[in-house]
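Hi V.,

You were right to ask for the full record rather than a summary. Here it is.
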Amino acid sequence: MSWNIFSPVKRIRRKGKARDGFDELIDIIETFAPRTFLKEREAFYYNYKMMPYCKKSLLTLLGTVSQVKRLKTDPGDHACELFLKLKEFYDPREKLSLAQALADKNLSRRFEDLFVFFYGRQNLSREEITGWLDRLAIN
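Predicted structure:
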C-alpha cells in the first residue's frame, strides 16, 4: 500500500450536486460564512436537519441567513426577519409570544451568536440589536 505524504490529513468536503434543499442552502452559506465558526454552525444548526419537527423551520431560517445581500442593503429588516425565523426554529410549539421572545435572554443570546457564526459580526452592540428589534415591538 503506497501512501502519499502530501495528501491532506482531513478529508476535504467536495462540492457536488446538492442532495436536498438543505445542502443547497448550506453550500450558499459556506461561500460567505467565516470558516472559523464551521464547527459551531454544524453543531447548532446544520445537524438539526435530521430531526423531523425542525426541518421546515430550519429550512426557512437557513434561507433567510443565505440572503447576505439583503443584510448589506437593509440590515434592520433583515435582522427582524432573522429574529422571527430564529424564534420559529427554537420555539416550534409557539409557547412564547413575540413580546416574551423579545425579552427572552437565551433567544437574544442565540440571535447574537447567529450573527457571529454566520456573518462573523462579533462587534454588534446591544444598542444596535435593540434598535433593530424595537421595530418588531412596535408592530
